[in-house]
Write a structure and sequence with these properties.
The chain contains six helices and eleven strands. By secondary structure, the chain is of the alpha/beta class. A hairpin with a 5-residue loop joins strand 3 and strand 4. It is globular and about 35 Å long.
Length: about 180
């Protein structure tokens, strides 16, 4: 399905995992989606763990969940920073309450933990945050990609193809169910 005309929000902060940011963003754009990069400040250059830069288009405080069909949270060390912003937690909860697709990979589950939306969901992540997800009520499994209702999770960079495909498929399903 061509997802042209639909938008996905992607959270950004310093030290995102470079592949976990760019691979999904490029694949989402190939699917026709408009991906908006939002960080603490608009028009600011943020750097990945390996130095790859990106420039945010929007500030976290100025985006509205109702403008998007999905949310993407990349891994790296950025999620530990992002989960400290009230706007990130509010937006994450709004996407969750609307049952819009939310995708997270590697350490990005920390954002969902801090938003308190993990209870009863089956998820995966890097094994390093397994305990955090379980303590937040998630059922943790060691798989390359997991889809539980509207939440898509992935472990680490080698799993990006399966994870990103699962997210694109879930976005297409959501878009098909919410035409108009």
């Amino acid at each position: 399905m061509n997802l042209k005309g639909h938008k996905v929000l992607a959270f950004v902060d310093e030290e995102f995992e470079d592949l976990e940011m760019w691979y999904p963003v490029l694949r989402l754009r190939e699917s026709g989606l408009d991906v908006h990069l939002a960080g603490p400040k608009a028009g600011t250059v943020y750097h990945g763990k390996y130095g790859v830069p990106l420039t945010t288009e929007y500030a976290l405080d100025e985006v509205k969940s109702e403008d998007y069909i999905g949310l993407y949270v990349p891994g790296g060390w950025a999620p530990d920073k992002l989960r400290r912003y009230a706007s990130v937690l509010r937006l994450t909860r709004e996407f969750h309450e609307a049952e819009k697709p939310i995708a997270h990979i590697c350490h990005a589950g920390w954002v969902l933990v801090s938003a308190k939306i993990c209870q009863g969901y089956t998820m995966t992540s890097t094994p390093g945050i397994k305990d955090d997800l379980e303590n937040a009520g998630a059922i943790w499994v060691d798989q390359e990609a997991v889809v539980d209702r509207h939440i898509v999770s992935g472990r680490r960079p080698p799993d990006l193809p399966a994870f990103t495909k699962a997210f694109v498929d879930r976005l297409a399903q959501y878009a098909g169910e919410h035409k108009g």
